[in-house]
Amino acid sequence: MNNRNILLLGGTGFVGRSVCEQLVERSGGGSAQVLVPSRRPANAKHLLPLPTVRVERADVHDEAQLAALLRGCDAVVNLVAILHGSAAQFERAHVELPRKLARACAVAGVRRVVHVSALGVGPAAPSRYLRSKTAGEAVLAAAGLDLTILRPSVIFGEHDHFLNLFARLQAVFPVLPLAGAQARFQPVWVHDVAAAIVRCLDDATTIGRVFECAGPQVWTLKELVQAAGRWSGHARPVIGLPDALGHMQALAMECLPGAPLMSRDNLDSMRVPNVASGRLPGLQALGITPASLDSVAPDYLSAGRGPARLNHWRARHGD
């Protein structure tokens, strides 16, 4: 790993931050470089202290720029994903980009690809998100690349937009009506997902395989929201909505300015349990014992003591 140069697509985001940190740690101060393209490098200031990470202004959806970024790289990790959007936007992010990536890899002579998809994919999946993720996997699998696919459940961590969002909402509202309350998830810590990506890059035996990245516990969405409120000190009553009302709530949120908190496509995705199938290898097959949600999340959701205690947790577990 120390001699490998990695192109990290989507590296400025929540998961990308953790992947960059672990790739830097693996390099041990060596010459390996992590190249993170971004259309807005100013938004990647959190990556600047990492010594072997280079942020470069680029549009990864431009195939010529993508091919240029790949020159001199030994492998590419694709984290690019969107949770909300039109059919065309899902197609662009989850299908067209992998197609462009496959062609650019052929031009640049890069064969090694680690692609992060999602649990619940399948051609008959109920949501545009999951169907487009399925198509993106197929595009890369058909390209003859040295491909590894990771399918995570919902990812939690100090900078997540999931538990932190529900904690903030409960700090403001006295009651929280919730669509999809009985949807099932198997939350996985971002640190474990990043470790899985790095280990796949290190281990050639993972080529051609698909891994499910999930934590040790299954939670309903209502249980997750309640836990976020409890751990943040703002526990509120959480009221599950019937399907029809939940659909109306999601539609109303789509009409608000900015990215919606929840969309109808999100609800469609939640019709498929976001849990490991058990038919594919998981984190344990990569030598990773996944952290439980309740051993990590209370630290970063509790005001004023999250980072210090989270660092203590990592040190205690040798991470």
Task: Tell me the layout of helices and strands.
Blueprint lengths: L5 E4 L4 H14 L6 E5 L14 E5 L5 H8 L4 E4 L8 H22 L3 E5 L11 H14 L4 E7 L2 E2 L6 H10 L3 E3 L5 E2 L2 E2 H13 L7 E4 L5 E2 H12 L5 E3 L2 H12 L9 H6 L23 H9 L4 H11 L3
Parallel strand pairs: 1-2, 1-4, 2-3, 4-5, 5-6, 6-11, 7-10, 8-13
Antiparallel strand pairs: 9-12
Helix pairs in contact: 1-6, 2-3, 3-4, 5-7, 10-11
Please, could you describe this protein's structure?
The chain is an alpha/beta fold and 319 residues long. It has a domain at 6-156 and 188-214 and 275-291: Rossmann fold (3-Layer(aba) Sandwich), CATH 3.40.50. Helix content is 41%, strand content 15%. The protein has eleven helices and 13 strands. A seven-stranded parallel β-sheet has the order 3-2-1-4-5-6-11, sandwiched between helices. It has a two-stranded parallel ribbon with strand order 7-10. Strand 5, helix 4 (128-141) and strand 6 form a beta-alpha-beta unit. Helix 2 crosses helix 3 (87-108), helix 3 runs parallel beside helix 4 (128-141) and helix 5 (163-172) crosses helix 7 (221-232). The protein is globular. 47% of the residues are buried.
What's the gist of this structure?
The chain is of the alpha/beta class and 319 residues long. It has helices at 14-27, 63-70, 87-108, 128-141, 163-172, 190-202, 221-232, 243-254, 264-269, 293-301, 306-316; strands at residues 6-9, 34-38, 53-57, 75-78, 112-116, 146-152, 155-156, 176-178, 184-185, 188-189, 210-213, 219-220, 238-240.
